[in-house]
Amino acid sequence: MHKSRMGGLIIDCNTDDLESAATFWARALGYEAIKTGNPDDENYVVLKTGPDDPAIELQGVTHPSRVHIDIETDDVEAEVARLENLGAKRVEQVSSWWVMEAPTGHRFCVIPAQKPSFEQKANKWD
Fold first, then answer.
1. 36-72 burial code (b ≥16 CB/10 A, e <16)
2. What is the mean pLDDT of residues 68-73?
3. What is the distance between the alpha carbons of residues 46 and 26, in angstroms, rounded to a whole number?
């Protein structure tokens, strides 16, 4: 058995000015934009959402701008296999997560659980 749930929305931004993009989205959605200060996160800006709200992040990318969701899970491989059984395909493994593609062509990521409320709010799968 493993658990999963929607973890967040990622706003992929094909831009040379991620800070301006973050300023726009922070103001548009009413959240504070936060740079983590971690050099590994230089292509990311986090919008500060509530503890039980989905995470919202901006990500600097080289592909066209789009929005994708993250599914957080306590077992990445089990969740990827479950989603493959539903028709999704693996696209690329990045660090500890997988980029997947739904049968509809939409890209999404399967990531390790991150939110403090994960255990209480996640769906349980056999």
1. eeeeeeeebbbbebeeeeebbbbebbeeeeeebebbb
2. 96
3. 9
Q: Is the pLDDT of residue 8 over 80?
A: yes
pLDDT band at 86 (very low <50, low <70, confident <90, very high): very high
Structure tokens at 1: 């058995």
Mean pLDDT of 89-112: 95
**Are the C-beta atoms of 38 and 90 separated by less than 8 Å?**
no
Rounded to 5°, the CA angle 32-36-117 comes to 70
Counting runs of H as helices and runs of E as strands, what totals does the chain give? 3, 9
Q: List, in order, residues 6 or more apart from 70 with CB less than 8 Å away.
A: 6, 7, 8, 9, 10, 55, 97, 108, 109, 110, 111
Pull the structure tokens for residue 95.
Answer: 């660090």
Q: Which parts of the chain fold into alpha helices (H)?
A: 18-29, 76-85, 118-121
Q: Is the dihedral of CA 32, 33, 36, 37 positive or negative?
A: negative
Q: Of the candidates 115, 114, 65, 49, which has an alpha carbon nearest to the alpha carbon of residue 57?
A: 49
Beta bridge partners, 73, equal 4, 112
